[in-house]
Amino acid sequence: MSRSARVVWDDALTTYDFGPGHPLAPVRVELTMALARQLGVLDKIETVGCVPASDDELTMVHQPGYIEAVKRVSASGLPDAGTGLGTVDNPAFKGVHEASALIAGASLAAARSVWEGSAEHAVNVAGGLHHAMPGLASGFCVYNDPALAIAWLLRQGVERIAYVDVDVHHGDGVQAVFYDDPRVLTISLHESPRTLFPGTGFPEETGAEGTSVNVALPAGCGDAGWLRAFHAVVPPLLRAFAPEILVTQHGCDSHALDPLANLMLSLDGQRTAYAALHRLAHETAGGRWIATGGGGYELVQVVPRAWTHLLAEAAGEPIDPATPTPEGWRQYVRERTGEIPPLTMTDGRHPEFRDLSGGYDPADPIDRAVMATRNAVFPLHGLDPMP
User: Fold this and answer.
1) Which residue from 9, 40, 61, 387 puts its CA 20 to 30 A from 311's CA?
2) What Pfam families does the entry give (predicted)?
3) How many whole angstroms separate alpha carbon 196 and alpha carbon 219?
4) Distance from C-alpha of 284 to C-alpha of 255, rounded to nearest angstrom
5) Where are the domains of the chain?
6) Half-sphere exposure of 54 toward its Cβ, with a 13 Å CA cutoff?
């Protein structure tokens, strides 16, 4: 399907580093790019560089006083309670502004590539920092690069943008920025806020004209239930909204091995979701697709394989799940992390799901979550919430 695709990359993107022991370790994107390179994926997708987002660009989303405060933390390395930097989740470190602005700049470069037509699809695997608020760092996120990419596109004159977030955590920062803006449809599929940070993302959070959409899934949800929920909500809304550009966030912390959450997806279920979003980009947005990384805290077994699949999908040449991981990459993993690397690009699962056309089961917590979302927003888009 893809005509042209880009990945935005600079080795300096790994300087977004909260320090030893922090879950958001930059080695995860380092190992992703190494795996994609050794599997030949980077031979099939153009790699371009990036520059840090300017202050003017950052103020499309973030408050000027917050940006200045982040710069002071960046220079001193000292905490600042007013910024949210200096907490367990968001430790202060020298260079935090520069590292965060570069990630934002990478997502802006992806947006620019798609808007200007130099690429049909563009990916920033280091991005997806969806919790950052206009005036506060939150949930490992300092500057909200997906929101900045969307805001930049709106500034160029795009009238309808859809954002789909498949991270296990609610995409609260992006929702907050565009909550009252009917030009932006935000859809987040996440673990229920009753059991997971950030405690938001209930179906009744519907925003302007029903353009904030939240599917709050129960802990323990696996491939079949997650895909059932995705297909019951995302395709109908994207078709009804008809975005000019699709922006997606691909946090892979929904995986069963992730240490910070409680969903039970496999790598194969996640790969299936990436393929579905690729198809929907072509069906509903003329193929214009901007994708970012996001959460993901199983640094060796999950993140590199998941996002290498994402890059291959964007390139239009998906990887056969049975493909072995290259021996050179395995050795690099052992040297870099001391861990045992995965041997293939699959968890050995074959995700299947029943769609909602056969009816729903009110006793099933996944179906209850799906129907809560459909009842909350489908009528606002002229859609029948009933299957």
Assistant:
1) 61
2) Hist_deacetyl
3) 9
4) 27
5) 5-48+108-381
6) 3
pLDDT tens for each residue of 17-37? 999 999 999 999 999 999 999
Note the residue count of the chain. 387
Average pLDDT over residues 110-118: 98
Question: What would the two tokens of residue 194 be?
Answer: 């009753």
Position 2 scores a pLDDT of: 59
Instruction: List the beta bridge partners of residue 255.
Output: 265
CA distances from 180 to 15, 188, 245 (A): 34, 16, 19
* 190 included as an active-site residue: no
Q: Enter the pTM of the model.
A: 0.98
**Binning pLDDT at 50, 70 and 90, where does residue 67 land?**
very high
| Spatial contact of 31 and 303, defined as CB atoms under 8 Å apart | yes
Q: Are 66 and 173 in contact (CB under 8 A)?
A: no
What the block records as the tokens of 312 is 């291959």
| Contact yes or no for 163/234 (Cβ under 8 A) | no
Homologous superfamily, domain 5-48+108-381: Histone deacetylase domain (3.40.800.20)
DSSP string, 12-77: GGGG----TT-SS-THHHHHHHHHHHHTTGGGSSEEE---PPPHHHHTTTS-HHHHHHHHHHHHH-
Residue 207, sorted as left (phi over 0), alpha (psi -120 to 50) or beta, turns out to be left
What average pLDDT does this structure show over 221-243?
Answer: 98
User: Which one is catalytic: 131, 170, 250, 278?
Assistant: 131
Mean pLDDT, residues 112-124 = 98
d(CA 7, CA 310) in angstroms, rounded, equals 11
Q: SS3 for 316?
A: coil
Q: What is the pLDDT of residues 140-149, one digit of tens each?
A: 999 999 999 9
Report how far apart the first and last C-alpha atoms of the chain are (Å, whole number). 30
pLDDT at 157: 98
- Could you please report the per-residue DSSP string of 363-387? T-HHHHHHHHHHHHHGGGGT--S--
| Contact by Cβ (8 Å): 271, 187 | no
